[in-house]
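Whether sequence alone determines local backbone shape is best considered at the level of individual chains. Part of our work consisted of pairing the sequence of a single chain with a tokenised description of its backbone. This step matters because it turns folding into a mapping between discrete strings. For completeness, the protein is quoted in full, as a sequence line and a line of structure tokens:

_____
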Amino acid sequence: MFQFQQEEKEKMIPFKQGRCLRVTANEMKEIYEKIKTPKKLGPVLKWENDFTDSATVFQKDGVFYMYFISISKDVSVSGYETHLARSEDLIHWTYVGKILKRNELDRWDSKQCAGYASFLDIAYEGGGRLEQLNGNYYIPYLAGNSDGYEPDPLYMGLAKTKDPVDPASFERFLKPILRPEDVDARHYEGKTLYKSFMFQDPLNTTGYPYVNVYNAKGEDNGERIYLAVSEDGEHWERYGEHAVLDLISNEPGGTSIGDPQIILIGDIYVMLYYGSRNCGAAYDSFACSRDLRGWTVWEGEPLVKSEYPFENGHAHKPWFIRYNGKNYHFYCAVNDQNERFIALAVSE
């Protein structure tokens, strides 16, 4: 494990108290109808020698861009790196370049650097427009210093840039913003921190302007979703005494969940995530909340699941964007031909 000097940290910020206004069954059905994407278009970004994964898509100056990650199919001597592609129509993508690279500096983030778009307009009709903070754009990333496929421990890093579509412009912070061994880490997040989604909250529900939703793994190797909050988008504190979405603890062989994304429909936060029960085929679903603390899980048909031969292993890791009245749901397709790539489902 990469060693850090232990820093003094306060206990996590407790959940903001108040009456929990649950999302009703009828509202859940309405949300499903608004975000469903029953038509699959198949692969949109696929490489022969590498796995492509975890698309996060945004709009800037009328053009769409995708941050995505890759790892060599020989994962034992590889690790995640982050890339940029661009598109005029969200379907056809052109490669631009690599933005976060592995290196030989023996830093905490030298061998794993998987970055994700954050601080977008989270409104349902927001079109995925990227937002600027403090004169910068930010990209959180999953970070580690060991080769392999997601080796423990993994940290949460942050990089900034003046130009989010210039691959050479990203500056990494010197230290992780959150670590699994932090003294304020909650139960079941003490092993590895995974994908994070940071957003500016227009409703200020937690009392903090910026919120970070992420999945983490503990000693049971299950994954749950947690929150952190920030006053400036750079310095983060854990929020809440426990996971906000836990589909494992109360059910034997329960569902691991991860890769959250938040969109806002009216006063309802919609969290898209992937789930996998007993290491079975992973799928994409969602949960809803009015306070970011109590979540109602959709129990109906998944938003995306394995249906066709090109995705007969998994269909998971959601990224949703709505543009010109149409829904686009990017996901990672995995099959039994040793392929893993970015695929797309759309509304009718």
